[in-house]
Amino acid sequence: MLKNEDKDIVDEFERIFTKEHNVLLHTNIHKIEYNKNLFYVEAISQGKTILLQSEALLVATGIKPNTDLLNLQNTNIQTDKNGYIVVNEYLETTSPGVYALGDITGKYFYRHSVNFEGEFLFRTLYQEKKELLSNILQSHMQCLHIPRSPK
Fold it and tell me: Which of 30, 37, 42, 138 has its CA 20 to 30 A from that of 99?
């Protein structure tokens, strides 16, 4: 969820978020059982077995790009090692004048993000002042990220 953020942002998010929520990092699920309307999860966290019980279970398997269907090998558009389209800080691909936005770039995976990126791209292309792209990290606690540098 925070893989594209700077370390100081990740640290602050974890500090605040863990005050309200039980967060397990570097944890592997060993076994899941469902009995009498409850989920029982056995996990290994930092070498220790832990048991969790919950009324609900959310499984997030991640996002896989489908750029292989776009025939990009016939273009100058490059993808990264995970298959996402490579863009610069202004959403321009490695093919000059061609832009990509949304989850296909592997940066922001929420629908509202692409709305913002579309507006950002319009301003970048048709206004003189170029700005850096900011984003909002969606969670129970929303975090606004305004970059200080193009990184």
Answer: 138
